[in-house]
Structure prediction request, 98 residues.
Amino acid sequence: MTTRRELAAAHRRAKHLALVGSATTATARLLRACNWLASVAKHHNRLTEALHAVYYLIDLINAGQPLPGQPGTTTEPADGTPRHPRARASASDPKDVA
Prediction:
């Protein structure tokens, strides 16, 4: 039987997935995903770890290196299926151009 805690976690996940999925631009999707990260990190009392992970990703981007989970890196599944099938294409939307 599903516990109340498991149901609450499933509800939070569904809510955040819907928010990210309903964003109309790549920028909005990223911002909503970052808000989701902050929410999960706070819920699990791991804010410092999440912040260090964000700093690590920023350093990779600034150095021009591929991000973990991107095609062509060793963290991708061998069969080429995307790790997050709900994710949209990574190309920026025309609305994101300032």
The helical segments are 4-22, 26-43, 47-62.
